[in-house]
C-alpha cells in the first residue's frame, strides 16, 4: 500500500502582489522519485524551500508523514532534520573538510558522539564515491565532487525525503554525469526524492512521476510515458520539445 | 541639559572660530597630501628602482608612525636642525605629509586596477610613456579612486583634532579653553564632539554627492582587474 | 650625553604603549564583535541602536572621545590615567571593529546560513559553527589595519599624562636639548611595533587560510 511521505495541499506563495505559485497540490509516496520540470522563474526553487520551511508559504498546508509541518507550533529545526536538501550551488561549509561537512549535522544537531558520527559520515561519503577525498576542503574539490559531498551531508541525517534543487545546473557538462549517477543509485535504493531539474534523460529513466509546473500552477502530472508520449496539454508538449532540443537527448513524444 | 545648552551657546562664537581653523587645516592638509600623494604614487608605479624605493619607504614610515609623533618631530625637532616653523605651518606640514602617504596608496590601488592594458593601448598609438600616464591612465585612475578616497577627507578632519597639543587654535583648543573656564570638561568636549559630528555628517553627504555625480556605469573598482 | 641611557629612557615607555594597546584592542574586539553580531542578526530596534553607536563613535575624533570617556570613567571610578585611557581607547576602537566584523559577516554568503538551517541547525548553532569561524578568517586583514591604528592612537594618551613613549621622548628632549633625536627615536619605536604586529598577523592569516586549489 503506497504510503504518503509528503502531502502538499493548496500551497500558495506570493511576494507582495507577485504570485509565485498558487494552490499547489502534490502527494509524494514512499520510495517515489518525483521530478518537477518547468520554465525558469516559475517558483520551483521557492516551492522546495517552502517544503523544508526555509521560506514560509502564504497559504495551504504541508504534511510530513502525518505531521502538519506548516502548523504554527511546529519546530522548524526539528522538521529539517527529516528533510534533506541539495542546493544548486552546493553550499558546502567552506571552512570544513568534506568529512567535517558531513559529520557536523551528526555531532551538533543529532548530538552523536564523535566516533560513531565519523563512522557514519565515512559511510555516506563512500556511498557517493568520495571516501578518498574525506580530508579535502571544498576549494580543493571539483564541482561534481562538491555536489556529491553535499548529497552525502544531506543523507547523513537519514531524511524521510530528499529535495534536489537543480543539482546539476551549476556544473560543467562533463561533471553532471557523476552526480546524476549518485541520484540514480539513490532512487533505486528506494529513497523518496523530489527533484527539480532540466535533465530530461534522468527524468525519463528514473522518475516515477513528472510534474510540469508553469506560471505558478501545475499544468500536468503523470508518468514519464504519459508526459513524453501522450501529453494532455500543448504547453507540455512545447516545453518538452524545447527542452530536449536544448539538452540534446533522444526524441521526445511525437 | 539646560546647563549644557547654556555652555554651548556661550562659547559658540569661540567654537565657530575654532571650526574655521579646523576646516582650514583639513583643506590645506588634503591639498598638500593630494599633490604629494600623486607624485608618490607615480614614483611607486612608474619610477626607477631608486624612486620606487624612496616612495615605498616614505609611505611605510608615514603610515607606520603616529601623526602626533610626526607633528612633534616637525614642530619641536626641526628647530634643532635649523628649521623653525610656526605652529600653524608645522600643523599644515605634518597633516599634509601624513595624508600624502594614505592618498598615494589609494591612487596606487586604482592605477594598478587600470592595469597595463591601458598603457599598451596608449603606446600603440604613438604616445610616450609619460603622455599615456598623463592623458590616459591618470584621468581614469583619479576617477576610479573616488569612492575609496572619500574616506580620506573625513579621516583627516578627525586627525586634525590633535594639533591643539602644539597650541594651534583649532576647535579642540577652544574646547580646552571652555573646559578650563567652566570646570566642566565633559560638557565642553561633548559640545565639540557634536560639532565634529555635524561636520563629518555634512562632509560625508557632500562626498556621496560627488561620488554619484562622477560615477560612470560599469567603471568601478571591482570591474577592473586586468 | 649618554646615547644608551637616552634610548633606554624612551624605550622604557614602550611598556606603557604596549600595555595600552593590549588592553584596548581585545576590549574593542569583544565589544565590537558582540555589537556586530547583534547588528546583523537582531531585530530592527537593536540594529538601529548599534548602527547609531557605530556612526557616532566613528564620526568624532578619537582624541575628543578619549577626553570625554576619560573624564567620565575616571570621575565615576578612581582609575589611573593609564587604565582610564586604555579602556576609553578600547571603546573608541570597538566602533571600528564592529564595522570590520560586520563587513566580514556579510561577506560570508547567505547560502552558508541556508545550508546550515537545511540540516536542522538552529540560528544560533549556525552562527557559532558556520558563520563565526569564516568571519574570523575574513576579518584578519582589515583587523591587522585596525591593530596598527590602535598602536598609533595609543600615543594620544600622552595628553592624559601617561608616561608612554611620546611623553618620555618629550621629557628627555627637554633635558638633553636633543628634540629631533628624541622624537625620531619615538617614531622608530612605534614603527617597529606596527611592523612586528603586521607581520605576526600576516603569518596568522596564512596559518588559518583554508586550502584551495587555484
Provide a brief overview of the structure:
Chain A has 254 residues and is of the alpha/beta class.
Structural descriptors:
heterotrimer; A: about 250 residues; alpha/beta; six-stranded mixed beta sheet; four-stranded antiparallel beta sheet; about 35% helix; globular; disordered C terminus; B: about 230 residues; mainly alpha; 9 helices; about 80% helix; flat
Low-confidence parts of chain B: none
Overall shape of chain A: it is: globular
Main β-sheet of chain B, in a few words?
Answer: none
Looking at the chains present, what oligomeric state does this protein adopt? heterotrimer
Biggest sheet details of chain A: 6 strands, mixed
Order of helices and strands of chain B: HHHHHHHHH
Task: Give the C-alpha Rg of chain B.
Answer: 21 Å
Binned, the helix content of chain A reads 25-40%
Kindly report the average pLDDT value of chain B.
90
Write a structural description:
The complex is a heterotrimer of chains A (254), B (226) and C (214). With 254 residues, chain A is of the alpha/beta class. Helix content of chain A is 37%, strand content 24%. Chain A has helices at 44-51, 76-80, 98-109, 114-127, 143-155, 173-188, 200-206, 224-229, 234-247; strands at 4-15, 18-29, 33-37, 59-64, 67-68, 83-86, 161-165, 193-196, 209-214, 217-222. Chain A is globular, with a radius of gyration of 18 Å. With 226 residues, chain B is mainly α. Chain B has helices spanning 2-46, 49-64, 67-77, 87-114, 116-124, 129-149, 151-159, 171-182, 185-214. Chain C is mainly alpha-helical. The model of chain C has no long low-confidence stretch (mean pLDDT 91). Chains in contact: A-C, B-C.
Q: How would you summarize the topology of this molecule?
A:
The complex is a heterotrimer of chains A (254), B (226) and C (214).
Chain A: E1 4-15, E2 18-29, E3 33-37, H1 44-51, E4 59-64, E5 67-68, H2 76-80, E6 83-86, H3 98-109, H4 114-127, H5 143-155, E7 161-165, H6 173-188, E8 193-196, H7 200-206, E9 209-214, E10 217-222, H8 224-229, H9 234-247
Parallel strand pairs in A: 3-8, 3-9, 6-7, 7-8
Antiparallel strand pairs in A: 1-2, 1-4, 4-5, 9-10
Chain B: H1 2-46, H2 49-64, H3 67-77, H4 87-114, H5 116-124, H6 129-149, H7 151-159, H8 171-182, H9 185-214
Helix pairs in contact in B: 1-2, 1-4, 1-7, 1-8, 1-9, 2-4, 3-4, 4-6, 5-6, 7-9, 8-9
Chain C: H1 3-11, H2 14-41, H3 44-59, H4 62-76, H5 81-107, H6 110-118, H7 123-153, H8 165-176, H9 179-208
Amino acid at each position: 500500500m503506497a504510503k504518503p511521505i509528503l502531502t502538499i495541499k493548496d500551497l500558495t506563495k506570493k511576494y507582495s502582489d507577485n504570485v509565485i505559485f498558487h494552490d499547489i497540490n502534490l502527494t509524494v509516496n514512499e520510495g517515489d522519485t518525483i521530478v518537477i520540470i518547468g520554465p525558469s522563474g516559475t517558483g520551483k526553487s521557492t516551492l522546495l524551500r517552502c517544503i523544508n520551511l526555509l521560506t514560509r508559504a502564504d497559504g495551504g498546508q504541508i504534511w510530513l508523514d502525518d505531521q502538519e509541518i506548516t502548523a504554527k507550533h511546529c519546530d522548524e529545526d526539528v522538521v529539517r532534520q527529516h528533510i534533506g536538501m541539495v542546493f544548486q550551488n552546493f553550499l558546502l561549509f567552506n571552512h570544513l573538510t568534506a568529512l567535517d561537512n558531513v559529520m557536523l549535522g551528526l555531532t551538533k544537531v543529532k548530538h552523536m558522539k564523535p566516533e560513531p558520527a565519523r563512522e557514519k559520515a565515512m559511510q555516506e561519503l563512500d556511498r557517493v564515491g568520495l571516501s578518498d577525498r574525506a580530508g579535502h576542503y571544498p576549494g580543493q574539490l571539483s564541482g561534481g565532487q562538491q555536489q556529491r559531498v553535499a548529497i552525502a551531508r544531506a543523507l547523513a541525517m537519514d531524511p524521510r525525503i530528499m529535495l534536489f534543487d537543480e543539482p546539476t545546473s551549476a556544473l560543467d557538462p562533463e561533471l553532471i554525469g557523476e552526480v546524476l549517477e549518485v541520484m540514480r543509485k539513490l532512487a533505486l535504493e528506494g529513497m523518496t526524492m523530489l527533484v527539480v531539474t532540466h535533465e530530461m534523460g534522468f527524468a525519463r529513466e528514473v522518475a516515477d512521476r513528472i510534474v510540469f509546473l508553469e506560471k505558478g500552477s501545475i499544468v500536468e502530472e503523470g508518468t514519464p510515458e504519459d508526459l513524453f508520449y501522450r501529453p494532455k496539454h500543448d504547453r507540455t508538449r512545447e516545453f518538452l520539445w524545447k527542452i530536449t532540443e536544448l539538452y540534446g537527448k533522444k526524441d521526445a513524444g511525437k | 541639559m539646560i546647563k549644557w545648552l547654556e555652555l554651548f551657546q556661550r562659547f559658540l562664537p569661540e567654537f565657530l572660530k575654532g571650526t574655521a581653523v579646523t576646516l582650514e587645516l583639513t583643506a590645506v592638509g588634503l591639498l598638500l597630501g593630494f599633490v604629494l600623494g600623486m607624485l608618490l604614487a607615480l614614483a611607486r608605479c612608474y619610477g626607477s628602482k631608486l624612486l620606487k624605493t624612496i616612495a615605498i619607504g616614505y609611505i611605510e614610515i608615514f603610515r607606520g608612525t603616529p601623526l602626533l609623533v610626526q607633528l612633534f618631530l616637525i614642530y619641536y625637532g626641526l628647530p634643532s636642525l635649523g628649521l623653525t616653523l610656526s605652529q600653524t605651518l608645522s600643523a599644515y606640514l605634518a597633516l599634509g605629509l601624513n595624508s600624502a602617504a594614505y592618498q598615494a596608496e589609494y591612487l596606487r590601488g586604482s592605477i594598478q586596477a587600470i592595469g597595463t592594458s591601458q598603457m599598451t593601448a596608449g603606446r600603440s598609438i604613438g604616445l610616450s610613456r609619460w603622455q599615456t600616464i598623463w592623458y590616459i591612465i591618470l584621468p581614469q585612475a583619479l576617477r576610479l579612486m573616488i569612492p575609496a578616497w572619500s574616506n580620506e577627507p573625513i579621516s583627516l578632519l578627525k586627525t586634525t583634532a590633535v594639533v591643539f597639543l602644539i597650541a594651534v587654535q583649532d576647535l579642540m583648543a577652544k574646547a580646552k579653553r571652555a573646559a578650563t573656564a567652566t570646570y566642566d570638561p565633559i560638557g565642553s568636549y561633548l559640545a565639540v564632539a557634536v560639532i565634529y559630528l555635524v561636520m563629518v555628517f555634512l562632509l560625508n553627504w557632500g562626498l556621496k554627492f560627488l561620488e554619484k555625480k562622477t560615477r560612470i556605469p560599469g567603471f568601478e573598482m571591482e570591474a577592473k582587474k586586468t | 650625553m649618554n646615547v644608551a641611557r637616552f634610548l633606554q629612557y624612551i624605550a622604557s615607555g614602550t611598556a606603557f604603549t604596549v600595555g595600552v594597546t593590549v588592553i584596548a584592542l581585545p576590549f574593542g574586539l569583544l565589544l565590537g564583535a558582540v555589537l556586530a553580531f547583534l547588528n546583523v542578526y537582531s531585530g530592527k530596534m537593536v540594529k538601529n541602536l548599534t548602527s547609531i553607536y557605530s556612526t557616532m563613535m566613528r564620526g568624532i575624533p578619537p582624541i575628543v572621545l578619549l577626553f570625554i570617556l576619560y573624564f567620565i570613567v575616571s570621575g565615576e571610578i578612581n582609575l589611573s590615567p593609564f587604565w582610564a585611557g586604555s579602556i576609553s581607547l578600547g571603546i573608541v576602537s570597538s566602533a571600528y571593529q564592529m564595522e570590520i566584523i560586520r563587513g566580514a559577516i556579510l561577506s560570508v554568503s547567505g547560502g552558508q546560513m541556508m545550508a546550515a538551517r537545511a540540516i536542522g541547525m538552529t540560528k544560533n548553532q549556525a552562527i557559532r559553527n558556520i558563520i563565526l569561524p569564516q568571519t574570523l578568517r575574513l576579518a584578519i586583514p582589515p583587523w591587522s589595519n585596525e591593530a596598527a591604528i590602535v598602536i598609533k592612537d595609543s600615543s594620544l594618551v600622552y595628553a592624559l599624562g601617561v608616561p608612554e613613549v611620546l611623553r618620555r621622548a618629550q621629557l628627555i628632549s627637554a633635558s638633553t636639548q636633543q628634540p629631533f633625536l628624541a622624537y625620531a627615536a619615538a617614531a622608530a619605536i612605534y614603527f617597529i611595533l606596527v611592523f612586528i604586529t603586521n607581520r605576526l598577523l600576516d603569518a596568522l592569516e596564512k596559518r588559518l587560510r583554508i586550502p584551495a586549489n587555484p
